[in-house]
Amino acid sequence: MNFVKRSMFRRGLSGVVVLVAIVGMGLYFWKGPGKATRFGQFLGSEPGHGRTEGETYYCPMHTTYKSDKPGNCPICSMKLVRLEKAPSNGQGKPAGNSPSMPGMPGMPMPSSVGSQAAPESSSGHTIFVAPQRQQLIGVQSVPAALRSLVKEIRTVGKVAYDETKLTHIHTKVTGYIEQVFVDYVGKIVKIGDPLFTIYSPDLVSTQEEYLLALRSRNTLKSSSFQWVSTGSESLLEAARQRLRLWDITDDEIETLEKEGKVKRALTIYSAVSGIVTERAAYHHGRFVNPEMDLYTLVDLSTVWVIGEVYEYELPFVKVGQTAEIEFPYVPEKKSLRGKITFTYPYLDPKSRTAKVRFEFANPNFVLKPDMFLNVKLRINLGEQLVVPEDAVLNTGSEQYVFVDKGDGYFEPRPVKLGAEAGGYYAIESGLKAGDRVVTAANFILDSESRLKGAFANMGKPSGEEMRKSTAATSNLKVDLVEPKVAKVGQNPIRLMIRDASGNPIMDAEVEVTLFMPQMGSMAPMTSKAMLNHSGNGEYAGKIDVPMAWTWQATISVKKGDKLMGSVQTTLTAR
Question: Fewer CB in 10 Å around end: N or C, the chain?
């Protein structure tokens, strides 16, 4: 019995000791409301205690939880966000209150929007991205620099004849071909080479007249009458000139004088050099007349290459520029140099290209008509301020880059672009040498910039829109009857809508929109509901509230297709 009493006494004494210890710890930690306590420090609600100086992370949903390491919130498993410290005013105190998210006092804005004082920006605003996040999204930047810019234009060219060196061979008389010396297409012909012999009655009679005039001159040259000797000389010269006009050479005329004998067939010689591309002169007495093309000769010592250049590249193409051609099918890189001789004054309406004519020397006839080649133009644009192509964001109507201002700040800046060459854009205005521009992850920065611009311009319509909105809003009176405080999930909602005179508005279309901006890693949220008229200007329905928050509520009232007005208010959900 005494043993049982002693055991009960010991247990009671132990409980009293534990109770006293708990009360003592509570008194030690508790100092009163509104003050930082050791208990609060122990739980981590006061930054800086119990950890080394450095970065602080907090939970966007539970702002009282803080940690000195990144990770997830142990309460809701949300990713922790780094807490940005407010800049000092030089006296060891913050320069101002850190901005907080609407409806959550003391909760800082996300680091992508920025809570530090941003540097001066010519475009009106900057965005802030913490260094850790820059590493995560892969932000990279390079300085704008002066660079010798060389634009390269490449096209496919087709070899063609030099049309200025194209010759057609005709006879000046009617006759019959007797013998052909150039007897196949592709044969190389030089000046003075015999082409064919021709029998022509006109040539035979002219030779006879020439010999007769020659004998008359020899007989009458010693006549005492001057007009007789002069007339015989004129007849001889007229016959000689007729033979020349019919393409009979002086050598053949001299041979005719020496032999004194008419030739049945005379030889026609080539007056140009070239390659035979067409032939209509055949053996065995083919009848020919001056209308027939007997040969077509082309001089291939120089050739044309016809290429096509897109219309946006035409401003860089000038007559006289040097061009280079490459043979795509030759293993060793073989190239020839030529120049631009002509730009055709029209475009192909389907391909939107213009033809450009290049002229090249053709040693050993390596360039053959209808051959395809690669043509390359290198145009020196001089030294210019350039940025990489990846740095430029093009909306169609404007172009801009993101300038790295340092310390995590980035500024979207419009620029005027010049020529593009070698993976770089020339910058005509908007940047100076040394400005660092973002070349990677700039699309993510663009999203951040547009989000910040939306925050900055929220509730700031243009003057005309503001006047219309003010006029429309002034005609409406909206009372939120239910709920005064919403809960998470489905909520009944009732509104009383009156006009400026206080009369209820009947049979209108009423839409309620709840909006929450982006918070940390959470995307923006929106919830909408259409309300039905229940009578006497009262509209009712149900709306879904996704989470506890002070939501921005917009009530829009329409009748038919006409907007009567819209009113903004807030709805708090707990």
Answer: N
Coil, strand, or helix at residue 256?
helix
Cβ-contact 207, 287 below 8 angstroms: no
pTM: 0.51
- pLDDT digits 0-9 by tens, 380-437: 888 889 999 888 988 878 888 989 888 888 888 899 998 888 888 899 888 989 899 9
**Dihedral sign, CA of 93, 98, 104, 110?**
negative
CATH topology of domain 125-157+310-355+371-458: 2.40.420
Collapsed DSSP state (helix, strand, coil) of residue 451: helix
Q: Residue 554, class by beta-carbon neighbours within 10 Å (0-12 exposed, 13-18 middle, 19+ buried)? A: middle
CB atoms within 10 A of CB 384: 18
- Packed helices 226-245 and 250-259: angle between N→C axes, nearest 10 degrees: 130
User: Can you identify the CATH homologous superfamily of domain 463-573?
Assistant: Immunoglobulins (2.60.40.10)
Short-list 32, 33, 29, 27, CA closest to 42: 29
Average of per-residue pLDDT values in the chain: 77
CB 119 within 8 A of CB 126: yes
Cα 166 from Cα 177, distance rounded (Å): 23
- 445 token code pair: 């920065």
CA dihedral 357→363→369→375, nearest 10 degrees, is -40
Q: What is the mean pLDDT of residues 520-529?
A: 75
- Using 50, 70 and 90 to split pLDDT, how confident is the model at 133? confident
The residues facing 142 across adjacent strands are 437
Q: Give the Cβ contact number of residue 555 at 10 Å.
A: 21
Winning range, highest mean pLDDT, from 60-69, 190-199, 398-407: 190-199
For residue 566, the model assigns a pLDDT of: 82
Residues 6+ apart with CB under 8 A from 478: 495, 496, 497, 555, 557, 567, 569
| Residues, the chain | 574
Burial (CB count within 10 angstroms: exposed 0-12, middle 13-18, buried 19+), residue 160: middle
Strands (E) in 219-334, as ranges, are 265-269, 274-279, 287-288, 295-298, 302-310, 322-326
Q: Which amino acid is at 412?
A: P
CATH number of this structure's domain 163-298? 2.40.50.100
Q: State how far the Cα of 566 lies from the Cα of 562, in Å rounded to an integer.
A: 12
